């Protein structure tokens, strides 16, 4: 199975960087942008200045603001919009999806209300079988990938052949994708690390150093793995790119929007101030802390850091108080 003609729906940071990866790997790529002026800039000037300034986009990458035109003849469709808007966007595109196209999910989140992972939302709205859906996860800060800094990713699909088809389509000199069949683990890893990155940023914003951040990364991984175990993930996944790999990148990089958002809260800014500073770009953890917390509660899994992030973001809990509460919990064995 080989895919040559690929459509990327969403022209934000990661959609644009991933489209570049595909085009650099020799695929014919068409992007859909919400705003016609963004589509025109990508198509005519080979740049997406609002999201990835100073990055030259390849000539075999074009763009349109017309979804029907973008999707015409696509063998694979990459969904690159934020997780809480995926359902609404995909509902609008449903009738335009070419039959049998592989659907590739870039979003890292859990839907509010339904508590569904992104591949579950895609299957529900598109009617596609789970075998047709490939999830991309791993330590992939968009700006670094667009600058062609070396990185690896994981492509998860219950159908190995389709994962391999997308693997071939995005393998290149600076991007090394691995396959995995654990869709649940890869999606949970990607969604949960955004919440943990918020907490790490918050700690940094309060002036704490590497020990605190490492503690949050490690205990964040522990609570993510607990949820994964309960929901049927392979525990090994959390030792891989979608687990520890993405946590380390996101929790330690100033490029992470989630970490940056948390840092602002830690410095005393309000949620609204931090949102304004993000300039319309999504910090997925701000919403996913609530959906993941609810998923954990309904699954009977203890996720104290996620719970604290929900209460800081949505219930007005002071970050310092959240830290004190986390430290004041009952003593326990590391793996209980
Ligand atoms: N940026 C990264 O480094 C990165 C890396 C890996 C994964 N991701 C994930 O990929 C997904 C997309 O991230 P991104 O970085 O491209 O986001 P972004 O905020 O940079 O861009 C989002 C894109 O979706 C479009 N869009 C359509 N409907 C929207 C709506 N209702 N609200 C907001 N935007 C809407 C926007 O116009 C924009 O083109 C997220 O789930 C994110 O967690 C991002
Ligand atoms: O900038 P963030 O925090 O959305 O994180 C980006 C990617 O998910 C890192 O892998």
Automatic annotation (TrEMBL):
What metabolic or biological pathway is this protein involved in?
Membrane lipid metabolism; glycerophospholipid metabolism
User: Which PROSITE patterns does the UniProt record give?
Assistant: NAD_G3PDH (PS00957)
Binding residues for substrate: 108, 257-258
Q: Which InterPro entries match?
A: 6-PGluconate_DH-like_C_sf, 6PGD_dom2, G3P_DH_NAD-dep, G3P_DH_NAD-dep_C, G3P_DH_NAD-dep_N, NAD(P)-bd_dom_sf
Identify the keywords attached in UniProt to this record, alphabetized.
Cytoplasm, Lipid biosynthesis, Lipid metabolism, NAD, NADP, Nucleotide-binding, Oxidoreductase, Phospholipid biosynthesis, Phospholipid metabolism
Which residues does UniProt mark as catalytic?
Answer: 193 (proton acceptor)
Q: What is its EC number?
A: 1.1.1.94
Q: Which residues bind NADPH?
A: 13-14, 34-35, 51, 108, 142, 257, 282, 284
Residue ranges that the Swiss-Prot or TrEMBL entry lists as coiled coil: none
Biological process per Gene Ontology, one example term = glycerophospholipid metabolic process
Q: Does the keyword Cell membrane apply?
A: no
Please list the residue ranges annotated as the Glycerol-3-phosphate dehydrogenase NAD-dependent C-terminal domain.
182-322
State the source organism's domain of life.
Bacteria
The UniProt record gives the binding positions of NAD(+) as 10-15, 142, 257
Q: Which Pfam families match?
A: NAD_Gly3P_dh_C (PF07479), NAD_Gly3P_dh_N (PF01210)
Q: Which residues bind sn-glycerol 3-phosphate?
A: 108, 138, 193, 246, 256-258
- NCBIfam families given in the database record: PRK00094.1-2, PRK00094.1-4
The family classification in the record reads: Belongs to the NAD-dependent glycerol-3-phosphate dehydrogenase family.
Q: What does this protein do?
A: Catalyzes the reduction of the glycolytic intermediate dihydroxyacetone phosphate (DHAP) to sn-glycerol 3-phosphate (G3P), the key precursor for phospholipid synthesis.
What name appears for this protein in its UniProt entry? Glycerol-3-phosphate dehydrogenase [NAD(P)+]
Organism from which the protein derives: Amycolatopsis bartoniae
Lineage here is: Bacteria, Bacillati, Actinomycetota, Actinomycetes, Pseudonocardiales
Gene that produces this protein: gpsA
